[in-house]
């Protein structure tokens, strides 16, 4: 029997995940949706033959729903993730897990009360073929011990709701999770530098340079530019003692004409990370269907990302370095 999934939040990524669960994945049916925009939910439900629930909590409680995907706005995630845990249902929550470290602690406490992992957070870069290849080279030891990583996270543009903090909490949060996974080490201190602002940035302090210090003394710099106009450009290079490894060009072709060489730049995150989202949701659905606890990023990772994000927001506002302090990691996440 196929896994019956309910999706809360039928906006951009909610609809994209519904499409992939229906067309790319086997063994999954999207049977229910919910959105505060009831008309949107009804339209999406009608298009796929699902039930539209007036409320996300009702969807979670429905006996016809085996597992839940949360794609609503970040501030609403805690409520739905806690409700899914209380119902004992596996839940895939888009990033961020929640918008404060206290909320993430409440989620971890609820999961501990349940006694096994139910939560996966949508940090899809861990499933990206290029980042996995980067990690494989790093872990093989051929470039020696890692010393630094240079990252760039460039968006063509961002939604109108973006405030300065969102550049950290919605954008940089991907690198925050990524480097913890890449180096197997927690982030202990952050700082944020503000270069001259781009004329394309409106009121935003854009670009920013985020500097992350890891417990293993690796130093990471992340250029955050969210209005570059030319496309979605994600870069990463690790410097080791004996060499370097960097993400390759994501373009599949190079065009040579009129004395120039070039190729396509992805338009946005759907374009660049489409295959990573496919693998992420396929693995999550397999675990939700009974193959075992999710082995992707969990509530602990969501919590660590929230603590680092809060520290980075403080660093952005004050211009000072901020130390990161995590609680002891509960045994459930070993
Ligand atoms: P969006 O605004 O397009 O869609 C969000 C939807 O949630 C809207 O339709 C809204 O009406 C609905 N919603 C809001 N509050 C709700 C509530 N209480 N109950 C039910 N529905 C509610 O936003 P989006 O771009 O799809 O982003 C949604 C989430 O996905 C955010 O947390 C965002 O950070 C995350 N996201 C992740 C990635 C990624 O690369 N992993 C990319 C984009 C967005
Ligand atoms: C968006 O919410 C995402 O998660 C994208 O992956 C990221 O690149 C973008 O900056 C965010 O706005």
CATH homologous superfamily caption of the largest domain:
Dihydrodipicolinate Reductase, domain 2
Largest sheet: 7 strands, mixed
Please tally the helical runs, counting DSSP H or I stretches of 4 or more residues. Answer: 9
Distance, first to last CA: 32 Å
Helix-strand pattern = EHEHEHEHEHEHEHEEEEEEEHHE
Overall mean pLDDT stands at: 97
Annotated CATH topology of the largest domain = Dihydrodipicolinate Reductase, domain 2
Give the total of domains. Answer: 2
Adjacency order of strands in the biggest sheet: 12-11-7-10-9-8-15
CATH class of the largest domain: Alpha Beta
> Percentage of helical residues?
25-40%
Q: What share of the residues does DSSP label as strand, in percent?
A: 15-25%
Overall shape: globular
